[in-house]
Write a structure and sequence with these properties.
alpha+beta, Pseudouridine synthase, 2 domains, two-stranded antiparallel ribbon, 8 helices, 15 strands, 26% helix
Length: 237
């Protein structure tokens, strides 16, 4: 049987707002001197929450772990659309928000539950002829994007105080919550964009079991080893 070191596996990180997912990987690689470090599912810079960091031979399981279903919580602002579909982008349109109750909003959200062909936003890492879409977007170029099949298991708002709605969504990998917010805004006729996003779960892993990035970077090498979920345990998940 292949021998595994104590650092062959994964740790759960609660990503703060600001750094990219790759920034988190780089910080852990530099701090602990681990050659192979990766992550399982990109979070936008302003998004927070669960980031599964794979270490050493654990990187061989990244594609498998990345394929797990996800759970997100966040806030959508109605009445405004942006070019990135979130608050990082430039405002493209403002509209009057028609009065609606929380129940009425949830009735509309429920129409998105099930299989969907979702068009990814221009500001995304998806590549067109080898070039990431976000690089084209920066140049003011918009290209046609192929719709992708996703599945929404649940999409429900827990609070609505115009123009902000707090929601929770469970979905398959590859789902753009920014696009979901944008599409819901279009359906309501007032437009919308994502203002906050937090990933609370990925497969069987929960952000409640994660350490903040600051806490991880304060660990000693021995303490890190104690936090690592071993390769064989991960492979059995």
């Amino acid at each position: 049987m292949q021998d595994f070191s104590a650092l062959d596996g994964a740790i759960l990180v609660d990503k703060p707002s600001g750094p990219t997912s790759h920034d988190v990987v780089d910080a852990i690689r530099r701090k602990f001197g681990i050659k192979k470090v990766g992550h399982c599912g990109t979070l936008d810079p302003n998004a927070t929450g669960l980031l599964i960091i794979v270490l050493g031979r654990g990187t061989k399981l990244s594609e498998r772990l990345m394929g797990d279903d996800k759970v997100y919580e966040g806030t959508i602002k109605f009445g405004e659309t942006t070019d990135s579909y979130d608050s990082d982008g430039e405002l493209t349109n403002s509209s009057l928000v028609m009065p609606m109750t929380l129940d009425e909003l949830n009735n509309e959200a429920a129409t998105f539950i099930g299989d969907l062909m979702q068009v990814p936003p221009m500001v995304s890492a998806i590549k067109k002829n080898g070039v990431p879409l976000y690089k084209l977007a920066r140049k003011g170029i918009e290209v046609e994007r192929e719709p992708r099949l996703i599945h929404i298991y649940n999409f429900r708002f827990t609070d609505y105080t115009e123009p902000l709605g707090k929601f929770r969504v469970a979905c398959t990998k590859g789902t753009y919550i920014r696009s979901l917010a944008h599409d819901l805004g279009n359906k309501l006729g007032c437009g919308a964009h994502l203002t906050t996003l937090r990933r609370s779960a990925s497969g069987k892993f929960d952000v409640a079991d994660a350490l903040t990035l600051d806490a991880v970077l304060k660990l000693s090498a021995v303490e890190l080893e104690k936090r690592v979920m071993p390769f064989l345990k991960l492979a059995a998940v």
